[in-house]
Specification:
- This protein is α+β, with helices and mostly antiparallel strands and 333 residues long.
- It contains 3 helices and 20 strands.
- The strands form 5 sheets. Strands 1-20-19-18 form a 4-stranded antiparallel beta sheet, with no helix packed on it. A 4-stranded antiparallel beta sheet has the order 2-3-4-5, with no helix packed on it. It has a 4-stranded antiparallel beta sheet with strand order 6-7-8-9, with no helix packed on it.
- A hairpin with a 2-residue loop joins strand 14 and strand 15.
- The chain is elongated.
Length: 333
């Protein structure tokens, strides 16, 4: 049912272990094992940018409706964190119904059918209501295997697990009932997986599967699910992510450039004003010995300098805010 179309090693400057995989319609994002950063890859899986984060995130997924990410940290059990598109934490959800499944989150995936999160634990799968977490419900529980993660393909979801006897990939319907199951080769350790919906013109369903070999070396598998009964039943909402405008970042950069240009123009204007004030004071001193007139001009110049200083504080704060939200001038790390 699953066919491996291609296998690609994820090259890096050093031996890097990746754990989580997410797709936002334009870029792929991978979390790094035991490191506080997320790496962005282009569609050909060339490393494009690295984001520093406040935690060592493990699992990650993209929420198309809220345009945010959801991620887990192995140090915070039964909790998922909401991140903006710059990977700053903006909220979190405590999953209380996970107690029976084990506290460690092993996978997160966005379910577009009902705008919920599917969260896997070692011992089960929970459907999390984002607005009312107390209404979250358990879809599946197991004590015979360790669930490594899952990926939502509404109205189905796919879990990958390991037991003493075998490693399996299982397709389940929305109520947790298994539909299909296949075995995974023993040398592969599945770290994460994501549905690649932008291949809708193809009759097959594409998945990218992040695996590791020999416990450390990361590879990316382009897999195809060959099952017409399942592929034909996938909801259209899974494909909406492909309609996202990947030029949004260009518009963002244009806005940042406009703000920076306005700051530069104001700074140039202040320079001309201060230069004119200096010339005015010099001309007054050279043209008169009237101390009252000189002091009057001096007070006027001093007032202008104070006002210019206040404006400089505002421009500096504006530049700091620009530096926080516009990072296109940073060197690639």
């Amino acid at each position: 049912m699953f066919r491996i179309k291609s296998e690609k090693p994820l090259s890096s400057k050093c031996q890097t272990r990746y754990k989580g995989l997410a797709y936002d319609g334009c870029w792929f994002y991978l979390t790094v094992y035991c490191e506080c950063r997320v790496v962005r890859f282009d569609s050909c899986f060339h490393e494009e940018k690295s984001f520093d984060t406040c935690r060592c995130y493990r699992c990650i997924c993209y929420d198309l409706k809220e345009k945010c990410f959801w991620a887990s940290d192995s140090q915070c059990l039964s909790t998922v964190f909401k991140l903006d598109e710059c990977f700053h934490e903006i909220d979190s959800i405590r999953i209380r119904s996970s107690d029976r499944c084990g506290g460690l989150v092993t996978g997160i995936s966005y379910n577009c059918c009902d705008d919920s999160l599917l969260v896997s634990f070692a011992g089960g799968v929970v459907c999390v209501n984002k607005q009312h977490p107390e209404k979250s419900r358990t879809l599946a529980e197991t004590c015979r295997e360790w669930i490594l993660g899952l990926v939502s393909v509404c109205p189905y979801y796919i879990i990958y697990s390991v037991s003493e006897q075998k490693k399996t990939i299982r397709v389940c319907c929305h109520n947790g009932r298994p539909i299909k199951e296949i075995c995974v080769p023993g040398e592969m350790i599945i770290e994460s997986a994501v549905f690649f919906p932008c291949a809708k013109d193809c009759s097959d369903c594409h998945f990218y599967v992040l695996i590791s070999k020999h416990g450390c070396y990361p590879y990316l598998l382009d897999c195809i699910m060959e099952c017409d009964a399942i592929c034909d039943g996938i909801c259209d909402c899974n494909y909406k992510i492909c309609d996202r405008d990947c030029n949004e970042n260009c518009e963002h950069k244009k806005c940042c450039c406009d703000v920076m240009e306005s700051i530069a123009l104001q700074e140039a204007s202040l320079a001309h004003i201060l230069n004119a004030e200096g010339e005015k004071l010099q001309k007054t001193i050279s043209s008169t010995d009237d101390i009252r007139k000189i002091l009057e001009v001096n007070r006027s110049v001093n007032k202008t300098i104070i006002n210019a200083t206040h404006l400089e504080h505002i421009l500096y704060a504006k530049l700091e805010a620009l530096d926080d939200c516009c990072d296109f001038c940073e060197n690639d790390r």
